[in-house]
Fold:
Amino acid sequence: MRIGNRLGGAMFGLIVALCGTTARAEAAERVVAVPLGGSLEAREGEHYYGVYVPTRFGGDLTIKTSEGTVEEIKGPNGATRTNGQDVGVDQQGWYTFKVKGTTKPYKVETKFVQTGQAAKKPWNFYYWPTKADSLHEPWAGGNARVDTYDLKGDDVRIISPGSYIEPGKDIVLAGRNGLLETTPVAGDDATWFPNMYDDLYWLGPKNTLFQTPSPMLKYDQLFGTSARIWEAVNSQNNDITRWPGHCLGGAVASMFFNDPVPAPGSGMTKDELKALYAELGENHLNHRIGDYATDIPFGPPRPGPDPTDWKVARVHAMYETHIRGERKPLLSNMRAFPPRGTELEVWNQAIYKYVAEYKAIPGRGPRAVDINIDVHANSGSSLNGQDDKDRVVHYEYSLVYGLDGRVDESNPAAADWIAVGGEALFAPLNVLQVLDSRWAGHNPYITIDNVRSLDLANGGTGNARFAGKAPEFLPVAQYEAGRTLPGVSGPMFAGGNEASAPRRGGFFGFFRGR
Structure:
C-alpha cells in the first residue's frame, strides 16, 4: 500500500468505503493519505486519496488540487459529499476522494474549519467599575507635585499638598457618598469613569459640565429606594486599579436576557438598564454552574511543556460540546488585555463563537491535531455605542481525539497549549457553563421585577406606569438632601455643598478603562 504521508498503518485500513469487493481491494492499493490541513506535492496521474476528520462535531472540509478535478468525495458512511461543505455530526473518520484529469505534476491539499456559534448572541455591555472618580497627577505633562489644597464634601486626600507624585497617581478619592466633589487646580487632573452610583452631571476640569449615565439614581427616583447610596457606601474600590467592576454580572445577564429596550416613560437608557441587570448578576453564589474548566494557569502558553497544557483538552471539549453542539454561550474569565495587563485582572465575558482550523500533526497519527482558534466574546467596555464589537482572542494548541470523535481528556499530558494572541495576554482562568441564576445581586434595593418592568424586551410591556412621559430626574444633592448614609451618621452633604453644581459628564476622552 502506498501512503504519501505516514499517518499510521492500522487506521488506514478504515479506507474501505468504495463499493464492490474487488473494486474496493483494487482501490485500496491506490489510496494515498493526505494530512488534514496539509498537502502532498509533486503528485502525478489519477489517484484515490484519503483524509481523516477526527471530530464528531463536524466542520467544513475543503479539498483542492492544482491540476485536474476533485471527484467522488465519500465519508465514513459511504455517502457522497459536496466539497467545501459541513461533513455533519458523528461523521468522524476517513474521507476518500479521487483526483482526475491531470496532465502534469500537481499538489493536492485539504482544509478543515469548524465554526461554533450560539443561537443567541450575548449583548455587549460596560463593566461599571467599583472605583469612584479621582483627582490625580496627569498621566503626561504634569509637574510631579500635588497642587490641589482644598477638599470639598467628604472627599479623601491620599497625598499631602506639595508632595512629589508620580504620573497618574491618585491625589484625592471620592468619599463614602461616591461622588468626587473636589475640582483640580492647574497641575492636577481628574478622570471620570462611569459607575453605578454616578450623579446626573459632573463638573470636570476647567469647570466643564457633562451629563452622565445614572442608573441607580434614576432607579431610586422611580421606585423610592436607596440603591445609589447603598452602592456608594458598600461597593467602592479605593485601590489604584480600575479594572474591578461588574463584568461578571454584565456577562451573565447578556447570556440570558434580550438586548434591553427601555420603556419610554422610564427615562432610562439602554446602558443604564444593562447596568441594573449587571448588578443583579454580580453575586456569583446565585449562578448554577454545570460543565466547567477552572483554575487554568495564566501562562502565558508557550511551545513545549508548561502548566497550561493540562487544561487544553478540557477547554476545547467545552467549546465543541456547548457552543458548537448545543449552540449555547459560555462564561469565561479571559484575563487581561494587551499590552500592559496583569495576570491578576479579571475580565468576565460571554464566549459565543469560535472559528477553529485543524491540522494533522506529522508522525503522531490522524487523531492528533494542531488547532488555531479565534474565540469571540462580547465586549465589556461598550457604552453609548463605543467599542461595540467582539473581543477576539487567538489560541493555538495541540490535542488528541478519541475514536468516538470527542477530545481525549484521559491523557492531558499529550496536549500542548502553544500560544495566545489577539486581545489577550494569558490563558483564561476558567470556562463555565451557566445553567441559570436567581438574579439577586449584592444591592438589596435592586430587584429583578423592578428592572424587568422598565424593559420592553424582557417583560415590561404590561406595566402602564412607564408608558407615559419620562420623569424629570433630580441630581443627587437635591434628591438625597438630608438623607443619611447607611451605617454613617450625619447628612449626605455637609455645609454649603448641598447646593453645589451638578458634577459628572459624558466626555469619553476620560474613559480609558475596559
